[in-house]
Design brief:
By secondary structure, this protein is mostly beta strands. It has one domain: Metal Binding Protein, Guanine Nucleotide Exchange Factor, Chain A, CATH 2.170.150.70. The chain has one helix spanning about 30-35; strands at about 5, 15-20, 20, 25, 40-45, 50-55, 60, 65-70, 80-85, 90-95, 105, 125, 135-140. The relative contact order is 0.27.
Length: about 140
């Protein structure tokens, strides 16, 4: 079975993604800017394709009425983003993975702060993409 391993900085949270995940998407929303950096890079997986090997310090912060963010309470790594109403899929910080998941596009691009330029082939949405990127599935090699 093909898999990608991921973890937080201190390795108190370790997980594996199996078979497939969504291509990564860069999010420029103000919540991501405040909880991560100028932008966040997330892939998304179905829960059946995610296995936790360790989750000793996994804590959840309810960042809005609709979403929560998972982080390590020991090292502070921001790892997960998930709907509060659905447990079927989870977004995972691509930086926490030991392998690259290619980027497909951007959301909340209107909130972008820097002068960084991104490839024109990336689809850019000024706000949420309303699931547009979910059809772009990356097969783990």
């Amino acid at each position: 079975m093909k898999k990608i391993k991921g973890s937080c900085l201190c390795k108190n949270i370790v997980f594996e993604i199996f078979n497939e995940c969504r291509y990564s998407v860069l999010c420029h929303c103000t919540m991501c800017q405040k909880s991560n950096a100028e932008f966040s890079n997330y892939t998304k997986v179905k829960k059946e394709n995610l296995k936790f090997l360790k989750k000793k310090n996994l804590k959840w912060f309810f960042s809005s009425k609709k979403f929560k963010r998972g982080f390590c309470s020991n090292c502070g790594s921001s790892l997960f983003f998930q709907s509060r109403s659905s447990n079927e899929e989870i977004a995972i910080s691509s930086g926490s993975l030991n392998s690259k998941v290619p980027v497909k596009g951007h959301i909340f691009y209107k909130d972008k702060k820097s002068n960084l330029s991104f490839p024109k082939i990336h689809k850019k949405f000024s706000q949420s993409a309303q699931g547009f990127f979910d059809k772009f599935i990356y097969k783990i090699k």
